[in-house]
Amino acid sequence: MDIGIIGLGRMGAGMAERWVRAGHRVVGYNRSRGPVEELAAKGMLPANSVAELVGKLQTPRAIWVMLPAGEVTERTIAALIPLVAPGDTIIDAGNTNFHDDQRRAAMLAEHGLNYLDQGTSGGVWGLENGYCLMVGGPREQVARLEPAFLSLAPEGGYVHCGPVGSGHFVKMVHNGIEYGMMQAYAEGFEIMRAKQDFGLDLHAIAEAWRYGSVVRSWLLDLTEEALRKDPDLTKLKGYVEDSGEGRWTIQAAIDLDVPAPVITLSLFERFHSRRPDSFAAKILAAMRKGFGGHSVRMKDEG
């Protein structure tokens, strides 16, 4: 099928290449030309502007927006409205707040345009392993674009969650759970590191836990890899950012009267990491870098 994608960063580029590999006709645009040229060499059709991208797609068009949540995504969708035609579909695959999805869908419907939200998980490993997709929108519109979703996801890794906003809502909760899991690992390894009279080999423990243990996971795999390369994580600063979705998850829990103490405290621990340096925060930073390619602060940085 014909696919347009705006935003060829870490995950957008992986999505575009995965579609190309699956045999789809993909047109891509990015503000900087480097990713466009790299993907054009692999079979993607390059566009020099949003208008050119729209012009190269067959109707009814399907255009994925893979940009940071907020103003840049808002501007891009606004720029698309006069260029596309009734019946076309815009899919936001970034980490947008589900309230924004609902507002946009109503606004685009006034122009005869469709809107879907695609929660996307997989980080920098998604190109090879596939992306877990959580999609929100009307069933018939999702079904029309299902070949594209199935090409992105590994077997069993795609779900139509419900109406517009539900995909990003589920992805938001997914990331809140991720905060809690990461924090538990980080605290556990710090407790073991503090028991100095045992001389525990944290890398060896992480490696052993990967096989048969009930706490085995991809996050543990990333922890093992980080400790193998630098057992004391001496090159990392224990400073951990948050993407915003943990905050949104907590706000949703408050709005719904649902207790969420683990997710809430894990977010507050990230705030704590921005003060004194700690080994637990270094573990968190290493995992975020491992699964998502997120930037970390190194010892020689401010």
Question: What is this entry, summarized?
Answer:
By secondary structure, the chain is α/β, with parallel strands linked by helices. 50% of the residues lie in helices and 13% in strands. The chain has helices spanning 10-21, 33-40, 50-55, 71-80, 98-109, 126-129, 139-144, 146-152, 166-194, 202-209, 218-229, 245-255, 261-273, 279-292, and strands spanning 2-6, 25-29, 45-46, 62-65, 89-92, 114-121, 132-136, 158-162.
Features:
alpha/beta, 50% helix, 302 residues, eight-stranded mixed β-sheet, globular
Describe what you observe in this structure.
The chain has 302 residues and is of the alpha/beta class. The protein has helices at 10-21, 33-40, 50-55, 71-80, 98-109, 126-129, 139-144, 146-152, 166-194, 202-209, 218-229, 245-255, 261-273, 279-292, and strands at 2-6, 25-29, 45-46, 62-65, 89-92, 114-121, 132-136, 158-162. Strands 3-2-1-4-5-6-7-8 form an eight-stranded mixed β-sheet, sandwiched between helices. Strand 1 (2-6), helix 1 (10-21) and strand 2 (25-29) form a beta-alpha-beta unit. Helix 10 (202-209) runs antiparallel to helix 11. The radius of gyration is 21 Å and the shape is globular. The mean pLDDT is 94.
